[in-house]
Amino acid sequence: MSIPIVIMAGVFGGAAAAFLPRIAHRFAYPEPVCRDCGRDFPSGVSGWVHAGAACGCGGWIGPVLASAAVAALLAGLLGPVLSLPALLLAAVLGVLLAVIDLRCLRLPDPLVGGLAVIAGVPLALIEPARIGTAVAAGVLVGTGYLLVALLPGGGLGLGDVKLGAVLGLVLGFGGWPAVAVGFAAAHLINGVVAGWLLARGRAHGGRALPFGPALLVGALISMTFIGYA
Predict the structure, then answer these.
(1) Are 147 and 178 a contacting pair, CB within 8 Å?
(2) Which residues have a Cβ under 8 Å from the Cβ of 88 and sit 6 or more positions away?
(3) CA 180 to CA 13: how far, in whole Å?
(4) Model-level pTM greater than 0.85?
(5) How far apart are CA 73 and CA 61, in angstroms?
(6) Does residue 95 or residue 18 have the better pLDDT?
(7) Looking at residues 151-162, what average pLDDT do you find?
(8) Do the Cβ atoms of 71 and 58 come closer than 8 Å?
């Protein structure tokens, strides 16, 4: 483990995440007004790009700490591999997706597509021999999740299907064991959370639960503990 790389990665993750709260709020709710305090967001670029809280009503520390921790964990366990810069960018975007999904049960297509480009393209350039496995994993996961989503009471939204396909592609560059561990961990995490909520009376059969955060944490577990290029 390289301590300087871990520190730099953590600082990068935290600094980048300082700009996430307003972006998360704008993607979660289409109207240019904060639903927490009722303030209008500025028009133009400043309505999206702003460090700190979305509009002065708080709620920015969590994403910053989460992104810094994830970035430092990736750097510490993966080391200075060629794929690390792309994975650090993907980690920040993953935190943004998790925040939005937890807030409004949405995984916006532009962000999911951005994750595919930010992580998938560099990995394809670094490991061209694994492109076939990556594409196969993405298609397999995406098709399987789509079939589940189409079932009555399947419990998956199309955003989950698309994110699952993208993460299958990304994990596919680490091989089939990475794919298996990532998605097994995601379903285990989601099952534990659902069981805990049911036990506390805070969930029921008709209530949708965000699956995006579990998918992203499962992918992180796989990338950091199974190994990655």
Answers:
(1) no
(2) 9, 12, 13, 71, 74, 75
(3) 27
(4) yes
(5) 18
(6) 95
(7) 87
(8) no
